[in-house]
């Protein structure tokens, strides 16, 4: 591949990332309500891009479980707390098992990679770069599982995390959470390095399950005003 082609590919990828980020934010803030129709042509027209990056952006939102393809078009998913909980719990089990396997098989090179991620997290905590911190957080968890060397397990893990990672800011964005998360990661990595598989599993499951609970709590709080408004409307009609 020529240098020019590589640059074009990188620019296109950055463009798709940006479209995904904007649409994801609109969905999570409620600007795009459940059942709202999204089309390749509409996205391409709004962002002044061709149909190809628009299609890729919508496909990524499908993988994240934020958009669903129907027989007519794509639409914003009607969020189900129970479905989210089920996917997240399954992800946590697969991740913990993969990390246990990874701890037993990790090489010195693997450990250096994870240590490097941890150092970068420490730098981001000081600089306040939340987006970079979020992606380093993903890298940390991903590397623990990748060390297992089990391709099917890794494939299953990634198919699950794609569907729940949009929720990360709901937990990591809470006051003081980035510092606490870093401390938890340090304890997890120490158990990983020492190959204390059961301790690692317990720490990781506690860490991930608590994240899930924080996300669900945040989402429920966001929905309360809507529920109260609906109840007020019903009361007004009855009066």
Based on secondary structure, the structural category is: mainly alpha
CATH topology of the largest domain: Four Helix Bundle (Hemerythrin (Met), subunit A)
**Whole-number radius of gyration?**
20 Å
Helix content: over 70%
E-strand count: 3
Which strands sit side by side, in order, in the main sheet? 1-3-2
The biggest sheet amounts to: 3 strands, antiparallel
Instruction: Work out the strand percent.
Output: under 5%
CATH class of the largest domain: Mainly Alpha
How many domains, as an integer?
2
Brief description of this entry?
It is built from 10 helices and 3 strands, in the order H-E-H-H-E-E-H-H-H-H-H-H-H. By secondary structure, it is mostly helical.
How would you describe the overall organization of this protein?
The protein has helices spanning 3-29, 40-47, 51-63, 81-105, 108-127, 130-146, 151-161, 168-172, 177-193, 197-238; strands at 37-38, 67-69, 74-76. With 239 residues, the protein is mainly α. It has 2 domains: 3-76, Winged helix-like DNA-binding domain superfamily/Winged helix DNA-binding domain (Arc Repressor Mutant, subunit A, Orthogonal Bundle); 81-224, GntR ligand-binding domain-like (Four Helix Bundle (Hemerythrin (Met), subunit A), Up-down Bundle), CATH 1.20.120.530. The protein has a 3-stranded antiparallel sheet with strand order 1-3-2. Helix 4 (81-105) runs antiparallel to helix 7 (151-161) and helix 5 (108-127) runs antiparallel to helix 6 (130-146). The longest helix is centred in the last third of the chain and has 42 residues, at 197-238. The N and C termini lie far apart (70 Å). Mean pLDDT is 87; it is low at 1-10 and 229-235.
